[in-house]
Design a protein that fits this description.
11% of the residues lie in helices and 45% in strands. By secondary structure, it is mainly β.
Length: 249
Amino acid sequence: MKKLFTKKLALAMLLCLLLTAISATALADGITAVEEHCYIRTAPGLNGEIIYTVPVGATATYLGDTSVDNRGVTWYKATYDGVTGWMSGLQISLSSDYSSYDDYGYDLIAVEEHCYIRTAPGLNGEIIYTVPVGAAAAYLGDTSEDNRGVTWYKADYNGIRGWMSSLQVKLSYGGSAGSAGGVITAVEEHCYIRTAPGLNGEIIYTVPVGGKATYLYDTSVDNRGVTWYKATYDGVTGWMSGLQIRTNF
């Protein structure tokens, strides 16, 4: 009986090791270095300290987290050879195993009225659809940079696939592609939408108490220290004061 138990335990341990090896191999296909100077940095962005250089063709394990820097470049959290940090989307290629980020809940929220899906990354790509302001498209995990240095994201919106400009969208951890972004609820009678953040912005709409506007993932702080939120309500897009609203995000 003791020998049988020992054999079963050994088989179980072997199975665990095999599953771990298979899992690690699959994950290792996540991010492939395509540049000679493909760095792992301590933080997403060029200000992050370089802590490792991944050889061309080597694959790192993607850890399911991304960040976009002030240039619009996407960074991926990854681990390689025991080193964990951030890798630039300009220096890597994502494998098909990670071709859909819908599993991770990343959405592209349209923040411009003329937010297009194009057949190819860049202004030369043909416009095939216009995503409404506030709507969310599913990010498909692929990026490209045009000759102006603008990052484009591959996306899916209601079955339409193509490329969206980082100048017209915000990358958000949403989890419900195709739906609106965060919700802003008016809690004051005179809850205005203004053309600009601050009291100097022209009033262009009054949201009724209890009305729910779509948050467009952009904020600004005025000279009084008040936060303003970019939002859209009933087709009107502008800025709402944090003193007059309640958020759900």
